[in-house]
Amino acid sequence: MEKIFEALASTPRRKILAYLSEVDLTAGEIADRFNISRPAISKHLQILENAGLIASEKRGSFVHYSLVRENLANTLNGFVQHLCPVSTPLKRESAKLRDARKASHE
Predict the structure, then answer these.
(1) Sign of CA pseudo-dihedral 72, 78, 79, 85
(2) Residue 102 has what pLDDT?
(3) pTM of the predicted structure, to 2 decimals
(4) Which Pfam families does this one have (predicted)?
């Protein structure tokens, strides 16, 4: 539980969770949404994964990250994000990307 609280204590990590709420993203796609270094993003992703909040999967030459929906902390975080004005546009952007990917596969 301590790892989860540590992971959620960071604004960039909460934003990463908001981005992953609707769509899986590569490390590069996540990094492109922040004004911090790629090594810093990598560290944030590692902390989130160690806390069991996200999972990674290597597909070809890219690592894709997804939300671990079965984690109770993610369920609670998702509820809080509905009330948080900072998360709303991030979730909206994530949903648009998900819809665009679905449309391109049809």
Answers:
(1) positive
(2) 85
(3) 0.74
(4) HTH_5 (PF01022)
Q: Compute how many other C-beta atoms are within 10 angstroms of the C-beta atom of residue 7.
A: 24
What's the pLDDT tens digit per position in 26-81? 999 999 999 999 999 999 999 999 999 999 999 999 999 999 877 656 566 665 66
Q: Which two tokens stand for residue 93?
A: 């952007």
Tell me the C-alpha to C-alpha distance, in Å, between residue 105 and each of 21, 25, 29.
Answer: 20, 16, 19
Coil, helix or strand for 25? strand
The strand order across the sheet containing 62-67 reads: 25-26, 62-67, 54-59
* Model confidence at 83: pLDDT above 60: no
What does 42-105 look like in DSSP terms, one character per residue?
HHHHHHHHHTTSEEEEEETTEEEEEE-TT-HHHHHHHHHHHH-TTHHHHHHHHHHHHHHHHHHH
Looking at the DSSP bridge assignments, the partners of residue 59 are: 62
Phi and psi for 71 in degrees, rounded to 5? -75, 125
